[in-house]
Amino acid sequence: MADKKQYTVNSGFDLGALSLEISEYLKNTQKLETQSFESNNEYIVQAREASAWKKFSGMDTATTVKLTLSNNILTAEIGKGKWLDKVAGAAVAWFVFAPILVTTAIGVYKQSKLPQSIFAQINDYVNRTILTASQNYQFITCKECGASVISSSAFCSSCGCKLTSNCSSCGSAIKTGERFCRSCGHAV
User: Cys bridge to 184: 45, 143, 168, 170, which one at CB 3.0-4.6 A?
Assistant: First the structure.
């Protein structure tokens, strides 16, 4: 079963650049081995753990990201690895080498969070390209997930976290990163 999301993008959207960004994110941030394929408005990025001991311990994350573009609609599908592999890894680890159970649990956790982090990267990329094409906006970084968000946003478009707080002096909204209230000048 795959997780699927759709995005409306500008004409001329560069699907190859998005594919490359996802591949680089998986390589550099998630430390996964990647390979990419392209055919007619479709890119596929595959990612997996490269080390043999990680495969044995249940941390072999096999993830496929399928990106398609049709009539300014970007469809992103992310296929998850087989959970049965994790259970088998845990059973073998218990009898062979008990400390591997910890790495198996870490592998299961990392795999469960991977689609969410990939969708956050796609969302961030789409937002940057749409906004760059229309006008110059200032961005802030969400303190919860690290996504780039338009500075005038009240909530993060990737994780939904609230980006504003209220001034303790006058009650006006304070954006993330501001050190003084715009209404009364009170230090935040």
Answer: 170
β-strand pairing of 33-39 with 139-141: unpaired
Contacts of 167 (CB under 8 A, 6+ apart): 173, 174, 181, 183, 184, 186, 188
φ, ψ at 33 (rounded to 5°): -80, 135
User: Would you kindly state where each structural domain of the chain is located, as residue ranges?
Assistant: 2-134, 139-188
pLDDT at 91 (0 to 100): 39
Cα–Cα distance, 161 to 149 (Å, whole number): 11
Greater pLDDT, 86 or 132:
132
**What average pLDDT does range 48-77 have in this prediction?**
77
Say if CB 164 and CB 176 are below 8 A apart: yes
Helix (H, G, I), strand (E, B) or coil at 17: helix
